[in-house]
Specification:
binds iron/sulfur cluster; DNA polymerase, domain 1; 13 strands; binds S-adenosyl-L-homocysteine
Length: 399
């Protein structure tokens, strides 16, 4: 039996089942265009598009009734054209270290009869920042051997609206919109008025295989008249889709992270199989020439610590040598095991010895502290618990 996947790469807006267009995820020009179809003059299109933008992205309005500077009559018309429905929250878990994990449920606007998809988003508070880890796809087409998402088939790309909805929902739940209520257990980074200061595209999926939607979502998220998250505080992580790296710098202009994980092609071919298509040399060349890269705007290289696989001193030295000519930060990630994984995390003294070599080469504090382990919110674990629960439910059903 063959299964037709709905892998839509376009970022063209798609109407909701009601025929209404989800407003979150439309560009300002697209909103204005819709207003034009409603018969508004060009001047009014621009003015109303800016008002809607402000209500939705600055004030977090999920209801046209809040839009006090728009007449009741026009609000009713807008309600017939635009959809402001937020995704359903399936679950919200809070870790004892303050990390929060949400499971959101989305319906595909273009295919209302398709089953809804579930997507995980994680918030990680630290003393100097609050980072939201956002998903770009449901599942992943790639099959990195240490990553749990890699064992799940790609279900579909998320739309720009669905990527942004993760940010909007997290902002709402953390009380980041004006007048919002901050949860009493929520940590807010010192000196910041917002709980979410940074976004990382490090949830489920390969963002550069959903380029158009990710680009659209990040340009909206960084718009100064809207969500206003600075491009310097947005990091896109890729396993190495080389042809899309330069466009990411040119067209999106966010910070780049590379899932390196190995310093030799033979090993990287196994850990990150996209390496067979775009090997290390091509990947590193794309990094050297990443538009905007400088010592003030470094590329982050992620390196997962796998016991007896990639964690020797020789690997550390080769890592430093490979990155010598690139403005780089190094992020050593303790491997997060998942049920059925074939790897173990390196021992702590091995990680320290590896980190020492990296440190001596001038890279500061390179080991990422694991967060949210009690709620399975760590890298590569996203959605595993949900899948397991579902299996349990299924098993119960079968009895
Ligand atoms: N697809 C993109 C972004 C999502 S993965 C990418 O691969 O870069 C985000 C990061 O988590 C990547 O660096 C990935 O290699 C890492 N990761 C995946 N599974 C992991 C695991 N089990 N333990 C530690 N890090 C993991
Ligand atoms: Fe996909 Fe990234 Fe996981 Fe590789 S590490 S399977 S690219 S999500």
């Amino acid at each position: 039996m063959s299964l037709a996947l709905d892998i839509d790469h376009s970022s063209a807006p798609r109407p909701a089942p009601s025929g209404r267009m989800p407003l979150v995820g439309l560009s300002k020009a697209e909103i204005a265009g819709k207003l034009g179809e409603m018969g508004l003059s060009e001047r009014d299109q621009r003015m109303r598009a800016s008002q809607l933008w402000n209500w939705v992205y600055v004030n977090g309005a999920a209801d046209f009734d809040r839009m006090a500077n728009i007449s009741k009559g026009l609000r009713a018309e807008l309600r017939d054209v635009f959809d402001l429905t937020r995704p359903e929250i399936v679950s919200e878990q809070v870790s004892n270290d303050g990390t929060r994990k949400w499971l959101f449920r989305f319906r595909d606007p273009a295919h209302p009869n398709m089953p809804p998809v579930e997507v995980e988003t994680v918030y990680i508070p630290e003393s100097d920042r609050g980072t939201l880890c956002v998903s770009s796809q449901v599942g992943c087409t790639l099959t990195c051997s240490f990553c749990h998402t890699g064992t799940q088939k790609l279900v579909r790309n998320l739309t720009a609206g669905e990527i942004l909805a993760q940010v909007m929902m997290a902002r709402e739940r953390l009380g980041d919109f004006p007048g919002g209520v901050r949860p009493t257990d929520g940590l807010v980074p010192a000196g910041e008025t917002r709980a979410i200061t940074n976004i990382v595209m490090m949830g489920m999926g390969e963002p550069l295989y959903n380029y158009d939607n990710v680009k659209k979502a990040l340009l909206i998220a960084s718009d100064g008249a809207g969500l206003s998250i600075s491009k310097r505080r947005i990091t896109l992580s890729t396993s190495g889709v080389v042809p899309k790296i330069a466009p990411t710098g040119d067209e999106i202009g966010v910070m780049l992270a590379i899932s390196l994980h190995a310093v030799r092609d033979d090993l990287r071919d196994v850990l990150v199989p996209i390496n067979k298509k775009w090997p290390l040399e091509e990947l590193l060349e794309a990094c050297r020439t990443y538009p905007g890269v400088s010592n003030a705007k470094r590329i982050t290289f992620e390196y997962v610590m796998l016991k007896d696989i990639n964690d020797s001193d020789a690997d550390a030295k080769e890592l430093v040598r490979l990155l010598a000519k690139i403005p780089a930060k190094i992020n050593l990630i303790p491997f997060n095991p998942w049920p059925g994984s074939n790897y173990q995390c390196s021992d702590w003294d091995r990680i320290e010895s590896f980190a020492d070599i990296v440190n001596r080469a001038g890279y500061a504090s390179p080991v990422r502290t694991p967060r949210g382990r009690d709620i399975l919110a760590a890298c590569g674990q996203l959605k595993s618990e949900t899948e397991r629960l579902k299996k349990k439910d299924r098993d119960a059903f079968m009895l």
